[in-house]
Specification:
By secondary structure, this protein is mostly helical.
């Protein structure tokens, strides 16, 4: 009886062992198939991204528009003349100097500012005339 059990157990073990090998082989094949499917999916995504990029590049093409008869006037800011710049700078420097030098700070600042503005405006006008020539 022991021998019969031993034979039956041996057959079962051997048959189970063979089944496990088959399962391992099937699992390896399935892993390979899954890996291939992942690669295919990655390439599909990359291809779709390239297609979108090409479509966007086509949309970015420069369009040349015909000029219309109406002209759009862009107002350019007027630049300061040399006389205006000189007057502002002279007024500032004169006011500071007048306030420092005078005993009456407010009165000295006003007088210095007026004198500086006059001198600065005159100097700026002379420089403008020289630039025009």
């Amino acid at each position: 009886m022991k021998t019969i059990y031993t034979i039956i157990v041996s057959i079962l073990i051997l048959s189970c062992k063979n089944t496990n090998d088959k399962v391992v082989v099937i699992d390896e094949k399935q892993e390979t198939i899954d890996s291939m499917k992942m690669q295919i999916e990655k390439h599909r995504i990359i291809d779709s991204m390239r297609e979108v990029e090409l479509n966007n590049a086509k949309k970015r093409e420069v369009l040349v528009l015909k000029e219309s008869n109406t002209t759009n006037k862009t107002t350019e800011r007027k630049k300061w003349s040399g006389a205006a710049k000189g007057a502002v700078i002279g007024a500032g420097v004169g006011a500071i100097t007048g306030a420092i030098v005078s005993e009456k700070k407010g009165e000295g600042a006003v007088i210095g500012g007026l004198a500086g503005a006059g001198v600065g405006a005159g100097t700026g006008a002379i420089i403008d005339d020289k630039k025009k020539k």
